[in-house]
Amino acid sequence: MIRRGRGVDRAGLVAVWAAAVLVTASFVAICCGLFAHGWSGLSLKFLSEAPSDAGRSGGILPILASTGLLLLTCLAITVPVGLGTAIFLTEVVPCGHRGGRLVRRSLELLAGAPSIVFGLFGCALFCNLLGLGFSIMSGALTLACMILPFFVKAAEEGLRAVSPELRLAAAGLGLSRQKALAFVVLPAASYALCGGLVLAVARALAETAALIFTSGYVDRMPRSVFDSGRAVSVHIYDLAMNIPGGDKNASSTALVLLFGVCLLNVAFRKLTMRMMGAK
Amino acid sequence: MSRSTSSDQLGRGLTALTGVSAALCALVVSAVILTVVSGAWPALKELGPKRFLFDTGWHPADGLYGMAPIIVGSLAVVSGAILIATPFGILSALFLNFYAPRIVGNLYRSALELLGGIPSVVFGLWGMTTVVPLLRRIHSPGSGLLAGSLVLSLMIIPTFASLADAAVRAVPSSLYASSLALGLRRWHALWTVVLPSARSGLAAALVLQTGRAVGETMVVLMVCGNIPLLPKGLFDPIRTLTANVALEMPYALGIHRSALFVSGLVVLMLVVGLMVLVERVRTEE
Amino acid sequence: MRCRVGLVSYGAVLAALLFSSCSRSSASSTMTLTITGSSTIAPLALEIAKRFEVSHPGTRVEVQSGGTSRGVSDVRQGLAQIGMVSRALKADETDLLPVLIARDGVAMIAHSTNPVSALSKDQVVSIYKGETRTWDKAGGPARPITVVNKAEGRSTLEIFLHYFGMAAKDVKAQVIVGENEQAIKTVIGNPDAIAYVSIGTAEFEKQHGAPIKLIAVDGVVPSTAAVADSKYPIARQLNLVTRGNTNDLTKTFLAYANSNDVADLVESQHFVRPTR
């Protein structure tokens, strides 16, 4: 019995390490491919110039600006709505409440809608019906709809994971539910919340099809959120699949995106550590 | 549950605000469904739903709109991706929480986060230029169901692993500690105590990722071959509903365009079906 | 305290975003032209638009993609002034006026390691119909042919089928692609593949070291020069379409797009100028 247990235990050990190694190896393979094609194209010029010759030469500054604006606007919408919904699902409604279940099911459905459907929906609702036209605002609103399920799910899990002892202690100290939520529960869940945010941002940055139809193709520096602007993923797609000779700059742009995600992760992690440490 | 005493409610303002947020979520879904249904309506009215299932093949130029092989293609590649991603995701979560030394665990977490930040078009390109030629050595042309499942699973593993990580971490550490104290070995403790306790979080993560796999467009467009025929083997080319829309929408007019909206509608129906299935499995346990 | 800091910074971000939009009202005094449609023409239109804005200050030309059918429907609905259509107009599109700005030829391509460099029309038909399945029947090695076809609705497919006298459902392919570059990348990764793409794209890729070759069909060697001389049989039109009663800005832009000022742009995107 003990010998069999040891065999299974060892197999489990091998399995988890093998899984981690295989996934990391694939990640390294993708990165190597990107570096091999795109490293030579990276330079300060690349980050500070506008694209020329349909993107084959020049840089990606307006694209980075558009993407930054897109993300900021999208998060400005997603965070309050997502947090509000997560609080609604965990603090306001009891388990099994019909309204709560409806909201949860709706979010799961939203997570499964294909990105091209979001593109058509965003175009019909934000561009045409609300009259925003091709603009970063349309793109941000569409993106917010797309990443809401991921953020709400992570926020909900985070809020639920806060130990009941903390809540009881807060109540015992005489804090109102509201104050307890703001000063005890949310900070305790902040790691999960930030993790959810990182997930949501990563998902948003990766989106292509929806943005082609909403924030558009224009590779100029946007004057405001109501201008059309090309996002990084759309630029990569266009260079790789539509422009002959665009592969090198596509890889370089993808590398810039990867570095950006890297920086974002580091920033979020430092922020969470400060939030958790300052408690 | 999370509510301590029933008389201790959140402030009325806050309750209203959060209620509005939640209502917005439900509204967005209705709006998306409305857009898809109104786009699909002309084709459904003129052709009738039966044509979409029983026409011999998808050839809009010749007036044939048989979607059955495409639906099977979607289901096949998603099943393949989930079959691969689930063990990898759960094993990753266990690795991060119970097996990895601190630094290795942090490195792996960073790798997962970065992997999750890579756009689907980069995954698709990598699949097209690296995975497909590799598979070609086993069976020409290499693009098809297996290639699609492999690359798609790689796309959903990072998010699934993160959510699984959160779910496993939410299990009280006392459970794991006490099972070890009872003499269980590590793997046995994880498999019989920790994982079952994290079941609901894991199931929720799985549903979310399956939904995402069903909705993925770029990757399947580039590595699955896009032939709308029933797959008979792992190396047969397939077309998914999402790739169908992405491939033909830019050039489709009239009934063809509306038929593509029907493709989108079927995707949504598949996701709903998925959710119903999971609900049934959950209530049976 | 932390809560307040968070709320203040959130408010600041929102204010910054909304304030930046105030500049829009001053900018709307410039004249704007919206062009949507085919992703094939979009890069060319984008470059022409940039040059146009420089030579005609005070104008703003926005180019969006989304496909030929989007260009047609946007022009019809008035959402765009010009549509990019990468084919000749169809019989039921008599309400639109086309302006030809370039031509684009279609060539068969294969991997450079494939010994086959010429095929007859019948051979191509039999390969694409699935009757010839291995390269040895066409003078190559005994390997299975990977037939690459284009998705339905694309003008390249329609021209190809028309020239070779096939119907869409006759084609038995192993891979279907969307854009030209996808076809090229498929052939680069697969020495047994055969595909058809835009000549300009193929020539460019070959010049830059891609392991592909252009295949002569019935003795006709594909090249952009042959398309320019109108000697090449398989070619498609690249059009800018409007609905008729266009404003001055649109007229000026259309004239500019057709002028010699942008001849080098057409060539740099690997299309062929229409002969005058």
Description:
By secondary structure, chain A is an all-alpha fold. Helices cover 77% and strands 1% of the residues of chain A. In chain A, strands 1-2 form a two-stranded antiparallel sheet. In chain A, strand 1 and strand 2 form a beta hairpin. The model of chain A has no long low-confidence stretch (mean pLDDT 85). Chain B is mainly α. Chain B folds into 2 domains: 10-54; 70-284, Orthogonal Bundle (MetI-like fold), CATH 1.10.3720. Chain B contains 12 helices and 2 strands, in the order ααββαααααααααα. Chain B has a two-stranded antiparallel ribbon with strand order 1-2. In chain B, strand 1 and strand 2 form a beta hairpin. Chain B is globular and about 70 Å long. In chain B, 54% of the residues are buried. With 276 residues, chain C is an alpha/beta fold. Chain C folds into 2 domains: 10-103 and 237-268, 3-Layer(aba) Sandwich (D-Maltodextrin-Binding Protein, domain 2), CATH 3.40.190.10; 104-228, 3-Layer(aba) Sandwich (D-Maltodextrin-Binding Protein, domain 2), CATH 3.40.190.10. Helices cover 38% and strands 22% of the residues of chain C. Chain C is built from 11 helices and 10 strands. In chain C, helix 3 (42-55) links the parallel strand 1 and strand 2 (59-64). The longest helix of chain C has 19 residues, at 2-20. The model of chain C is unreliable at 22-29 (pLDDT under 50). Classes of the chains: A mainly alpha (279), B mainly alpha (285), C alpha/beta (276). Chain A binds chain C through residues 53-55, 69, 72-73, 76, 80, 128, 134, 182-183, 187, 212-213, 216-219, 223-228, 238, 240-246, 275, 278, and chain C through 2-3, 10, 13-14, 17, 20-24, 27, 34, 39-40, 42-44, 46-47, 62-66, 79, 178-182, 184, 200-201, 204-205, 208, 268-270.
